[in-house]
């Protein structure tokens, strides 16, 4: 398929399968640790996958970061959010000052924070990367949210950031977002790709009431219909078209981080419903990218679980969170650390002479 992007084609060709031989060797060692086989559950699975992704017997995620993509959404005009779009710019200033949840959590888990203005309507604050593709999307309930070319530019922005992280020695990246109204395009993308009923996967986002949630679902249905995605679109469009028609610039940017991260051998930790939608876009473009994904937590937004099921991923944490920003994703880093400590520091039965 012609993506009209040499960078996307180049990156896609770099995505490799994990090293299954190394995974088998690490699995054998994990089974020989001084514990019943499988008794440490998901921790065992995570370190085995990390070893395969990094192609080493002893993986590391000591150098890690969260990438927070920020963008605004024209569909907010339809009343789908409890907050105005202006809050996106205010939150970028908060990120720059270090006062948001993602800043506090990232300091706690020793993760770098990279905030990117990829599509807000606001002036980019100092300390935020000014990589704006477009000043907010168009109203997807009236037509495409953006052009295909703009979607490609946003994907390429994310890929460049992932490549930069890998070049600078990072081993893991968490995906974060900020954009008032972005649960609406996320649910639309999830419905389009998975076929799940819109009414069932539309959540309350920033805290709207049930009446507004139902109205939000109708807006999503309208958006899918207006953009030719209400019926079977496969064969007519690709995933770039999907994110262009009913997506967001931050969603496209995060999809690019996934594709670029997979190409560069990074472990990629997805957050909630917005990152889940980005993962759907990335995996529809390049299925191999799924091998690099770790699901952090179960969001309160119903579309996220649908996306994770489609991707074959299971969330590790159940914290009733729905903030975004990557706030749930970075909380998986200490558990990844624990899985590596298990591998490196536990004795084996052979050590005990058994």
Please, how many domains?
A: 2
What is the CATH class designation of the largest domain? Answer: Alpha Beta
* CATH homology superfamily name of the largest domain: Nicotinate-nucleotide-dimethylbenzimidazole phosphoribosyltransferase (CobT), large domain
The number of helical segments is 14
Report the sheet-strand fraction: 5-15%
Q: Kindly name the structural category.
A: alpha/beta
**Radius of gyration computed on alpha carbons:** 20 Å
* Spatial separation of the terminal alpha carbons: 55 Å
Bulk shape = globular
Write the H/E string, N to C: HHHEHHEEHEHHHHHEHEEHEH
Strand ordering within the main sheet: 3-2-1-4-5-6
Portion of residues in helices? 40-55%
Mean pLDDT, all residues: 96
Q: Using the 3D structure, state the CATH architecture of the largest domain.
A: 3-Layer(aba) Sandwich
Q: Under CATH, the topology of the largest domain is which?
A: Rossmann fold
Note the quaternary state here.
single chain
Low-confidence sequence ranges: none
Instruction: Tell how many strands the DSSP assignment holds.
Output: 8
Most strands sheet? 6 strands, parallel
What tags apply to this protein structure?
354 residues, alpha/beta, 5,6-Dimethylbenzimidazole Phosphoribosyltransferase, Chain: A, domain 1, Rossmann fold, 2 domains, two-stranded parallel sheet, 8 strands, 47% helix, 11% strand, globular
């Amino acid at each position: 398929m012609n993506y009209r992007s040499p960078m996307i084609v180049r990156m896609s060709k770099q995505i490799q399968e994990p090293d299954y031989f190394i995974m088998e060797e690490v699995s054998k060692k994990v089974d020989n640790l001084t514990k019943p086989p499988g008794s440490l559950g998901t921790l065992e699975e995570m370190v085995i996958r990390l070893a395969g992704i990094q192609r080493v017997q002893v993986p590391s995620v000591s150098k890690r970061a969260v990438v927070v993509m920020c963008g605004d959404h024209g569909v907010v005009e339809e009343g789908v959010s409890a907050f105005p779009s202006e809050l996106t710019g205010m939150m970028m200033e908060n990120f720059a000052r270090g006062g948001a949840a993602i800043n506090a959590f990232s300091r706690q888990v020793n993760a770098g924070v990279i905030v990117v203005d990829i599509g807000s309507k606001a002036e980019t604050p100092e300390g935020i990367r000014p990589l704006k593709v477009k000043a907010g999307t168009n109203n997807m309930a009236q037509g495409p949210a953006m052009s295909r070319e703009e979607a490609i530019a946003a994907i390429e922005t994310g890929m460049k950031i992932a490549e930069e992280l890998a070049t600078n020695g990072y081993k893991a990246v968490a995906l974060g977002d900020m954009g008032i109204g972005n649960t609406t395009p996320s649910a639309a993308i999830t419905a389009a790709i998975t076929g799940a009923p819109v009414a069932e996967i539309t959540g309350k986002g920033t805290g709207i009431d049930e009446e507004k949630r139902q109205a939000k679902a109708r807006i999503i249905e309208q958006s899918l219909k207006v953009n030719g995605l209400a019926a079977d679109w496969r064969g007519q469009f690709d995933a770039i078209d999907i994110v262009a028609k009913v997506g967001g610039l931050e969603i496209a940017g995060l999809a690019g981080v996934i594709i670029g991260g997979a190409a560069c051998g990074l472990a990629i930790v997805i957050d909630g419903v917005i990152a889940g939608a980005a993962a759907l876009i990335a995996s529809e473009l390049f299925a191999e990218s799924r091998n690099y994904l770790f699901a952090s937590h179960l969001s309160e937004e119903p579309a996220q679980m649908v996306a994770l099921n489609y991707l074959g991923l299971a969330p590790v944490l159940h914290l009733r969170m729905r903030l975004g920003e990557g706030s749930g994703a970075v909380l998986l880093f200490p558990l990844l650390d624990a899985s590596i400590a298990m591998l490196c520091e536990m004795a084996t039965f052979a050590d005990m002479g058994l």
